[in-house]
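Lab meeting notes turned into a lecture example. A postdoc, R.K., suggested we walk through two folding results consecutively so the class can see how the record format repeats. The first protein's sequence and C-alpha cells come next.
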Amino acid sequence: MLSLLSNSLELYTKNKFKVFGGAVPFEEKDTSMLDLLSSTDLVAGAIEHYLTRKDKLEDFTIKEEADVILQWLAHDGIALKKRTTIIRPDGEGIIGANLAFELKDQPKDVTIIPIPM
C-alpha cells in the first residue's frame, strides 16, 4: 500500500519526496499518539458507513456520530486541509478519485472563510 501511495503522489503534487515511509503499531501504548491515530480511524469509519450504505437503500440514514464527522469533512480549517481519496479495483486494474463532501444546509451560527487549495 505504501508503494501504491508513493507512486500515486505524482498525480496530486509536483513536489518530489526523498523519503516516503509508514509505521507499524507501537509496542508501548502512547496515549497522545493513540488519540492522533484514532482521529483517522473515526474518519475512515464514517466514510465507510456512508459509502457502503448510500447505494443500497432508497432512503438511507447515517448515524448521528458519522454525520458529525462527515460535516467536519465538508469544510477546511484555516490550517487543516482534508482530502478523501477512494481507491477501488476496476476490472484488470484500479481506479482512484477524490471524494468531496458538501454541507446540505450551511450552519447559521458560523462565519465560513473560503480557502482555496
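The second example is placed directly after the first for contrast:
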Amino acid sequence: MLGAYLPILLLVVISICFGLGALVLSSFVGPKKPSKVKLQPYECGCEPVGSARERFSIKFYLIAMLFILFDIEAVFLYPWSILFKKLGMFGLAEMGVFIAILLVGYIYIWKKGALEWE
C-alpha cells in the first residue's frame, strides 16, 4: 500500500532538491557587487523620495478589499448567466437575493464614506 505513494514521495524529494540546488548554485555563480544605487528601492524609474517603510492610509486597504469583494460578484454572475435558462425562476430568485445583499452592502459602505478618497 505504501508503494502507491512512492512516486509522490519521489516528486517531493526531487522538488526540494531542485529548489535548494538552485538557491545554492545562484549564491555561488551570481555576481556580488552591491552599490548604493543597487540597494535603493525601485520606484518606477523615479528617484526614491522618503522611506520605503512609510505607512499607508487604512483607506487604501479598505478600497482594495472592496474591489476584491465586488470582483468576486462578477465571478458568480458569469456562471449564472450561462445557466440562466436551465435554472429558471429559482435561479432568478436566488440571484435576485444575491444582488440585493450586495446592493445593501454597497449602500452601507457608501453611507459610511468608505469610497471617499481624501
